[in-house]
Structure formats: structure tokens, C-alpha cells
Design brief:
CATH superfamily of the largest domain: Glycogen Phosphorylase B
Strand content: 5-15%
CATH class of the largest domain: Alpha Beta
Number of domains: 2
Oligomer: single chain
Largest sheet: 7 strands, parallel
Number of helices: 14
Number of strands: 13
Strand order of the largest sheet: 3-2-1-4-5-6-7
CATH architecture of the largest domain: 3-Layer(aba) Sandwich
Order of helices and strands: EHEEHHEHEHEEHEHHEEHEHEHEHHH
Structural class: alpha/beta
Radius of gyration: 21 Å
Length: 429
């Protein structure tokens, strides 16, 4: 196939963008022209990877503002709303989920003219959107449209699965009713207004209470088969699962002597609350305080507030780390439950302790827990010994470790991003 122009439009946070980078890198290496319509703070970070950049503002740039770091819009948003993460998920529907969606909607409305300009300029053969709200320019361009869900697949709602963002157990459907009632009450007015605007831009009406269209061409979601919900909620034939989206663009990581030189009973553990979750400085400080008293060694992704706290003597870390290069080397992952970290941990066969904060992280935490891939803890209410006991349990359970290692081998053999790239290529013919 001669080279085609593939346009990616990912949500500006690291998770969706990194997912698209993984798929985009395969397409680039196959000779295609890969363009990223990326939020402006990503400027200068994608071209070195071999992609073209077409930058988009989601809001009017502040006057006299310095250059922002990648994903700064959402780093600031999460930092300012972090107190809401201490609330139950049903309360977060109005205090966090709703405001987050509204911010996304406001961004979609603001950048619609710029997206149309980019599409007209680059004339893509396929458009891929990894986002959670509709951007009408992408579905009215007259070319094949691919939707990617890089969040927990409960976002693809269904009757026999738990509601999205709830973190409710699969085994307790009675608990879903009150949450769904609150979901309807808090999201319906926003959906109705947004749907009217989407229609005014020439796109078809949105599915009821869904903020983005399902593509008639191809829809993909990133989630390993072993954690999936398809036994309860089968999906149509135009949905394709990507078991993992592990990119090959991360830099190698050599383990420092500080963590390689350790007693035989000391495990190597990776701690990351993601680029957004680590903005909760108080939580990071508490975790460091507890983990710093153990015999184990830790690699810590400090995140954008790295200057606000110090690591313990049994830890090494930095603001940003090449996660894909680190996870294969560790014995355990302590995570916020972001979809990328969750699927990457399964990809490499690692157990998880999950401390969810917001959005789909509760759903990932619950799924990891109920499928036996790790332990979910109450992020702001766990006792010190619950965390340390979970570490001991997960790093010494030889049967579990063997099981997860085997699952990792199976996931890696499926070559998820290569399959995704092939399906996108088929649409570009």
C-alpha cells in the first residue's frame, strides 16, 4: 500500500496521547504520513518521534503565558479539583465527572474551527479520535472515522455491566440502580445541550446519554481479554479489542545501583500515580512515608509536582520516567489505575496495588481486584498496614505470580498495536 495520511486527534492527557503514539509509530514505520492534531502544549514533543504536528488550543491562550508542558491543561485542572477525589464515586458525578466533561465540551466548541482547518490542510485518508466527547469536525470530514476508547471499556455502556466511573462490583448489580439514577440526573442536562450543538455543526445526533458517536467504520478499545467484560456485554462486529498498546518509543532505563543492590528478600516496586494523580502532593508524601519504612526498593514517578516532596532513602525517581522500560524490571506496580498503566502491567505480567483517584480508575481498580490481578485499596482511607500487607501478599504468592507471568506472555503474543494499525490501514485503501 502506498503511503496514506493518517490523522490522530487524542485527548491531551498522557494516556490517550501515548496510546496513539504507539499505534502511530507502527503506521509511520509502514510508510504512512502520520499527523497529530495535538493540544498546543504537546508542541515540539511529537515531531522528534517522526510525526507531523498540527497544534490546537482548547481555550484562549493566557496573555504573556510561558510555554506549557505537555498536557498542562489537565495537570492544572486535576490539581485544582483534587479535593473532590476524596468523595464517593456517586458524589463525584456532580463534583468531578460533570465539570470534567463540561471542560472537554468547552474545548470541543472552542477548537472546532481549528480542527476543520487542519483537516482541510492535511486531507487525511483516515481520522482517529481517542477522546471522550465528540468533535464534529472529525465525523463530518467525509473520510473513515475511527473511535478509540483508551479508558476502561465500561465507558461503552451496557445493561449487564456496572455503570462507568462507579467502581461498583460486578457481583452486586443491586448497587448500580442508585448510581445510574444519579448519573441520569447529573449528566442529562449537559448531554442535551451538547447534543444540540453537535447537530448544529452538521453531525448526526449523539446516542442517548453518550457524549461521542460510535463509528460505523471501526471502533477500538484498549483492554486485555483477561479483564474484559464481553462475557456480560458482547460488542458489535465493528468493535475491536486491543489487548495492550505498548509503544516502542520509550527510552531504555538502566536500574540504578541504589535499587539493584538490595537484600534477597527486598522486592523492586514501581510507584506511579500518573502525570495527573501525582499532582496530589499530600497523597504522594503519605505513600513515600509508609513505603520508606519497608525493606523494599522503589522506583517512583514523581510527576509534575516533583519539587514539592522528597523521596525516601530506599527510593529513586524523577518527574517523568520511561514507564514501558521500567515495568518489565519490577516485581510489583503501585498505581492509580489509569488505563495505560493497568494494561501495561497486565502486558508484562505484573501484580498491582491500585489506589484509584478519578474517572475510570475506580473501574480498573475494581476489575483488577475482582479478577485477581491485584488488590484495590481505599486511596484516602487505607491503613498503613493494609498497604504493607498487600505488598507482602502480592510479591510472595508464587501461584499468582506464575499465573500473571503466563497471561503476560499471552497478551504480548497478540501484538495489539500491530493489529490496530492493520485495521486502520484497511480503511485507508
Amino acid at each position: 500500500m502506498s503511503g496514506k495520511t493518517i490523522l490522530f486527534w487524542p485527548e491531551s492527557a498522557y494516556g490517550p496521547t501515548n496510546n496513539c503514539i504507539g499505534i502511530g509509530n507502527v503506521l509511520k514505520n509502514r510508510g504512512h504520513n502520520v499527523v497529530f492534531a495535538a493540544e498546543s502544549s504537546w508542541g515540539g514533543r511529537l515531531e522528534p518521534l517522526g510525526f507531523k504536528e498540527a497544534l490546537v488550543d482548547l481555550a484562549p491562550p493566557p496573555e504573556n503565558a510561558d510555554a506549557q508542558s505537555a498536557g498542562q491543561f489537565w495537570k492544572d485542572f486535576i490539581r485544582d479539583t483534587a479535593p473532590e477525589f476524596r468523595k464517593p464515586t456517586v458524589d463525584q458525578l456532580s463534583s468531578f465527572i460533570g465539570p470534567t466533561r463540561q471542560a472537554l465540551i468547552d474545548g470541543a466548541i472552542y477548537c472546532e474551527p481549528r480542527l476543520k482547518e487542519i483537516i482541510a490542510q492535511h486531507k487525511p485518508d483516515v481520522i482517529i479520535e481517542d477522546n471522550v466527547v465528540c468533535f464534529p469536525a472529525t465525523v463530518t470530514a467525509g473520510v473513515p472515522f475511527v473511535r478509540i476508547v483508551s479508558c476502561n471499556p465500561l465507558e461503552i455502556m451496557g445493561e449487564k455491566i456496572a455503570p462507568p466511573f462507579s467502581g461498583l462490583a460486578e457481583s452486586d448489580p443491586d448497587s448500580w440502580k442508585s448510581y445510574l439514577q444519579a448519573y441520569e440526573k447529573t449528566q442529562r442536562p449537559m448531554w442535551e445541550k451538547f447534543n444540540n450543538w453537535v447537530i448544529s455543526q452538521g453531525a448526526k445526533a449523539l446516542p442517548d446519554l453518550d457524549f461521542i458517536h460510535t463509528s460505523k467504520d471501526l471502533n477500538m478499545y484498549v483492554y486485555p481479554q483477561e479483564l474484559d467484560y464481553t462475557d456480560k456485554r458482547p460488542l458489535a462486529s465493528n468493535w475491536h479489542r486491543i489487548d495492550s498498546s505498548v509503544r516502542s518509543t520509550d527510552k531504555p532505563f538502566e536500574l540504578p545501583a541504589e535499587v539493584t543492590n538490595r537484600p534477597s528478600d527486598a522486592k523492586l516496586i514501581y510507584l506511579s500515580l500518573g502525570s495527573l494523580g501525582s499532582a496530589d502532593v499530600d497523597l504522594m508524601k503519605r505513600l513515600i512515608g509508609i513505603l520508606g519504612k519497608t525493606r523494599h526498593k522503589f522506583i517512583v514517578s514523581k510527576g509534575p509536582q516533583a519539587s514539592e516532596f522528597e523521596l525516601a532513602s530506599n527510593m529513586v525517581g524523577a518527574e517523568f520516567l520511561p514507564q514501558i522500560s521500567i515495568i518489565p524490571k519490577v516485581d510489583l506496580v503501585i498505581t492509580h489505575g489509569g488505563n495505560n498503566t493497568t494494561t501495561e502491567s497486565v502486558h508484562f505480567g505484573k501484580p498491582m496495588i491500585v489506589l484509584p483517584l478519578f474517572w475510570d480508575q475506580y473501574d480498573n481498580a475494581q476489575r483488577v481486584h475482582e479478577k485477581g490481578h491485584g488488590i484495590r485499596l481505599a486511596t484516602y482511607h487505607f491503613k498503613d498496614e493494609e498497604l504493607t500487607n498487600a505488598i507482602e501478599k502480592l510479591t510472595t504468592d508464587t501461584a499468582l505470580l506464575a499465573k500473571l507471568s503466563k497471561i503476560g506472555e499471552q497478551v504480548r503474543s497478540r501484538k495489539g498495536i500491530e493489529e490496530a494499525a492493520t485495521k486502520i490501514e484497511a480503511l485507508a485503501k
